[in-house]
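Here's what a typical entry looks like (arginine kinase):
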Amino acid sequence: MNYKLKVTIPVVVCGGAVLAYYLIRRFTLPPLDSVDGKAAAMVDAATIEKLEAGFSKLQASDSKSLLKKYLTKEVFDALKNKKTSFGSTLLDCIQSGVENLDSGVGIYAPDAEAYTVFADLFDPIIEDYHNGFKKTDKHPAKNWGDVETLGNLDPAGEFVVSTRVRCGRSMEGYPFNPCLTEAQYKEMEEKVSTTLSGLEAELKGTFYPLTGMSKETQQQLIDDHFLFKEGDRFLQAANACRFWPSGRGIYHNENKTFLV
C-alpha cells in the first residue's frame, strides 16, 4: 500500500493555537512585560471601559469557560493596564470569550509576549486544559523507535484511508492574527511565497493567493481539506479574520501531497 503523506502548515497561526504554541515556546521566551521588560504605558481609557464592561458581562453569565473560571477580579485588576511591546492588551486576549459565552477556553494569545505579560491568566488556564501540566513540567523524551524500518501498518488497505502530518509555526517579529495589520499580512505573504518558490524536486509547486481566487477554486480546496473554511465565530470575535483574504494564500506541490 502506498501512503499519501499530506503536510499542512498554515502560513499564519491564529490565536486559537494558544495551547500548542505555549508548549513549544513557553520555556524559551524572555520574561517580558513589554518593551525591554519594563511596564508598558497605561492602556487607554476606551479600552479600559470595554474591558470593564466585558468583565462584568462575563461574571454575570453562566459561562463554563476556563476564562471565567480564572479571570477573577484580582487577576483582572492586575492585568487590565498591561500591554505587550506589540500593543496587545488584555482585551485582545479575552474579547472572543466575552463575545462567545459558550466558549470552552475563551482566550487567545494576540502575540508571543502575551504568554508572559498575561501569565497570571494564561498559566492556570493552560495547566487546567492540560490536566495539571505545569509550566515547569517537561514533555517526556520522544521515542519513535527505528523509523528506518517502519513497516506498512495496513498492507491489505483495509483500515488506513489517509495520513496527515500537520504543524504550525508563527513568524518571529510579528504578532499573531488578532493584532496583525494588513501591511504585515502582505509582508508575511511575500516572505513565505518567496521562500516556497525556491523549493525543488517533489516539493516544487505553486503559490495561490486567496485574493482574486475564484469561489469555485476556493470551495474545492476547502472540500479537499486543503483550505480553512471561513465563518468561525470564535476566531472572528478574536479579530483573527481581519482583512480577509488579504495576505492569505496556499501553496501545494504538483501531487498535492505537500501544502502550506
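The longest strand covers residues 205-209.

More examples are in the samples folder.
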